[in-house]
Amino acid sequence: MTDRAGRQPSPAIRRAHLTVLALALLVHALVLIFPTRHFLGRFGWGLFYPFRFHPDFSLPTAILVFATTLLCIIFLTRRVGGSRWSGRGTVPRLGLLLLLGIFVKVGLIHTTGDGLSNYRIRTLTAGHSEFLLEAVQIDDLGATVLDYESFVRDRTAKDRRIYLKQKGPGVIVLFSLLDRAANGTVGRSVLRRWAEDEAFLGKMSVTLDHRRPRERYDLTESRKKELAYLVTLVALVFPVLTATPLIPLYLLAGALMGARAGLLVCLSCLLVPGTTLMVGHLDYAVFPALFCAVVASFVLGHRRRRSRWIVLSALLFVLYSTMTLAATVAVLFVAVFVALELVRTGIAGRLGRGELHGSLGRLGLFLVSAALLLLVLRLAMNFDPWTRYTYAREIQVNWIAGGDRPYWLVTNAAEYLLAFSFCFALLAAVQSLLSIRKMTAGTGKDLDSVVLSWSVVLIGLALGGGQHGETGRLWAFMNAIGCLGAGRLVAVLFRRRPWIPLGGFLSILILSRFCLAYF
Predict the structure, then answer these.
(1) Is there a contact between 248 and 293 (Cβ–Cβ < 8 Å)?
(2) Averaged over 439-452, what is the pLDDT?
């Protein structure tokens, strides 16, 4: 196995790790099978959405998804052995990973109810449906973007548009472009079969009529028809977007660990419950891909000393920042990574003046490039991130802050662990401890800096974020990078049969789909 991450553990340590991993799988399964109150009742707040078994769960479909996915995992892990990452076959492997990620997402959508129709209705009941409902009413996208702040505040003066208030103009641009694609001549001809289904249109009307008064939209019949096409396109596109973090993750993991371990990282990522099972929602699709792309391009640029990768990272960050305040976490991650890299090279005795200036220079290049690009956006589309997100943060503080802090710290951690998977969280934590030991011994690698950056940033979100629940959604952008540590240990502990733990993670995914009303 090509694994540049370090030596193999002793048999005793390996057995201990395997025992703890098996216990984590068992605990996660028990939490799913039994109501949450048996485990976390003293904390009161239900994790995710109310737990319930799906009465219309399709066991044959679930078995088909499980068997097909497991066979693909076995095929991929056996085909990718000791080949070099830069060798031929990278593009086919990445293509197979993307297809498998889309298959798992779509397959699980069809394990309950009538699949696509349920997915579309759930998309319309999620908070981010505000963006779809606004997009179909925008006639002049350019004017809306140029005066976005007035648009947001005018639209929300009397109505509770809580999500619209907190996001940047990039979100409206994205959904408006999807709306134009869905309702163009080509889009309508392709989507007509699903968008004009009478059963779906009936469910959609009932869903819109039952929104709370301050969240209700009075759409004309033509707008409702336009919405039907838009939500249908979203239901077809978002499963693809959910798999896109695999692209930057594949490039980053392969460069840091080698072909086989990098592949296992990506396979682990597509089995994360809190990403794969969720509704068509930016927090599970677009945001994770952008965060992972910012981190991957910066780390690769820093590793290879390539300025163009650093500038690309800044460009992706600016794109991310036009959508959400959470983009600032990417800057924090980059800064923590550079600091840990300096610590690692200092402990190893390799921190000379050139290394110090080079690392700080690359961080400076990232920040300056981002600032210049934001200035261009300010001049071109009147996007002022300070004004936009100062107002957004005020909304967030009034909505989700305050209360008993220890209570929310424990509850937020419990919810995120269930979303990310107890198993992945355990593996990532163990890898973080191993990375600390390696760095203090002077044998750390850049992989260790990335893994520890993930841990530091996640702890910072828990302690300093002031979040009240929904961490499985709001911290979902961290999942892909977190799989670096988890996938690396899978590669080390299961050298010959990595499909065994991946099969266990897949079982948890299927069980989660059965037990939880994820979407």
Answers:
(1) yes
(2) 91
Residue carrying structure tokens 């779809």 = 132
Beta bridge partners of 112: 57
Structure tokens at 81: 């052995």
Dihedral, 503, 509, 513, 518 alpha carbons, nearest 10? -170
CA distance 409 to 398: 18
Give tens-digit pLDDT for 182-241: 999 999 999 999 998 888 888 888 888 777 656 667 788 899 999 999 999 999 999 899
Residue range 22-45: mean pLDDT, rounded: 64
Bridge partner residues of 12 (DSSP): none
Residue 499 is predicted with a pLDDT of 87
Model confidence pLDDT, tens digit, residues 447-489? 999 999 999 999 998 887 777 777 888 899 999 999 998 888 8
Mean of the per-residue pLDDT values of the chain: 84
3-state DSSP assignment of residue 335: helix
Q: CB neighbours of 398 closer than 8 A, spacing ≥ 6?
A: none
Asked whether 99 and 269 are in contact (CB, 8 A), the reply is no
Q: How many helices (H) and strands (E) does the chain have?
A: 26, 0
DSSP class of residue 516 equals B
Residue 377 is encoded by which pair of tokens? 């956006």
At 112 the three-state DSSP class reads: strand
Question: Are 169 and 381 a contacting pair, CB within 8 Å?
Answer: yes
Q: Are 299 and 484 in contact (CB under 8 A)?
A: no
Q: Is the distance from CB of 348 to CB of 443 less than 8 angstroms?
A: yes
Long-range contacts of range 498-502, CB-CB < 8 Å, 24 or more positions apart?
A: 498/77, 498/264, 499/70, 499/73, 499/74, 499/77, 501/21, 501/423, 502/70, 502/73, 502/77, 502/264, 502/267, 502/268, 502/271
pTM for the model = 0.90
Distance CA(51)–CA(260), nearest Å, equals 37
Confidence of residue 51 (pLDDT cuts 50, 70, 90): very low
Residue 518, φ and ψ in degrees, nearest 5: -70, -35
Determine the residue type at 141.
Answer: L
Q: Are the C-beta atoms of residues 234 and 271 closer than 8 Å to each other?
A: no
pLDDT at position 156 is 55
Residues 124-164: tens digit of each pLDDT: 887 778 889 889 988 899 999 998 888 887 765 455 667 88
CA dist 448 and 257 (Å) reads 11
Alpha-carbon span 277 to 147, nearest angstrom:
36
Integer angstrom CA distances of residue 155 from 149, 167, 175, 215, 495: 10, 13, 17, 11, 56
HEC string of 60-80?
HHHHHHHHHHHHHHHHHHHHC
Percent helix, strand and coil across the chain, each to the nearest 5: 75, 0, 25
* Max CA separation in the chain (angstroms): 70
SS3 197: coil
